[in-house]
Automatic annotation (TrEMBL):
<dbReference type="Pfam" id="PF06521">
    <property type="entry name" value="PAR1"/>
</dbReference>
<protein>
    <recommendedName>
        <fullName>PAR1 protein</fullName>
    </recommendedName>
</protein>
<dbReference type="InterPro" id="IPR009489">
    <property type="entry name" value="PAR1"/>
</dbReference>
<keyword id="KW-0732">Signal</keyword>
<feature type="signal peptide">
    <location>
        <begin position="1"/>
        <end position="26"/>
    </location>
</feature>
């Protein structure tokens, strides 16, 4: 009977310690991350972290990490692994991302590789949403690979509606709705 009571007490103490440690450590706050862990991280609130560079009056560069307004899909408290950064062809010290990277065949090959696409859900979610913002479906882009991927992106970019100059008059913008897409898992 004494061993059951001491085992129960030990379990309660371990549970209490776990809650105390979790409460004191909290989750990931972007503002607490350094330059080497900021890019591609997700805070405990589910917001993506972004690395910013400021140049001081002395000319010295200072890097800070801040919380962006961009939410990650189903991810919280995430610092991307170095294996995923390398497999996906990314740079940990990146100062932002651009859809232009999707036009680079070398980058797209790495992003669409099985080492990245199948193993790095945070990065795939990020670039999936970036591609959707450009009217591109990432799985289709990955299927196209190589020269076809570049042609597909160029076609999508060139098919956008271009507003006429104010003096030309007469042309009305096209109205359409796009449903949000979900990243593949």
């Amino acid at each position: 009977m004494a061993s059951y009571t001491s085992l129960k007490t030990l379990a309660i103490l371990c549970l209490a310690l776990a809650f105390c440690v979790q409460g004191s450590l909290g989750g990931i706050a972007c503002e607490n991350l350094n330059k080497d862990s900021c890019a591609f991280a997700v805070s405990s609130s589910g917001k993506r972290c972004v690395l910013e560079k400021k140049v001081r009056r002395s000319g010295e560069e200072a890097y800070t990490c801040r919380t962006s307004e961009i939410e990650a899909d189903k991810l919280k408290d995430w610092i991307e692994t170095n294996q995923c950064i390398e497999a996906c062809g990314l740079d940990r010290t990146a100062l932002g991302i651009s859809s232009d990277s999707l036009l680079e065949s070398h980058f797209t090959q790495k992003l669409c590789s099985s080492q990245c696409y199948d193993s790095c859900p945070n990065i795939i979610d990020l670039y999936f949403n970036l591609a959707v913002g450009e009217g591109v479906f990432l799985p289709k882009l990955c299927e196209a690979q190589g020269a076809n991927a570049r042609r597909e992106m160029a076609e999508i970019k060139s098919s956008g509606f271009v507003a006429p100059s104010p003096k030309s008059g007469g042309v009305q913008p096209v109205k359409y709705m796009v449903a949000p897409a979900m990243a593949p898992y």
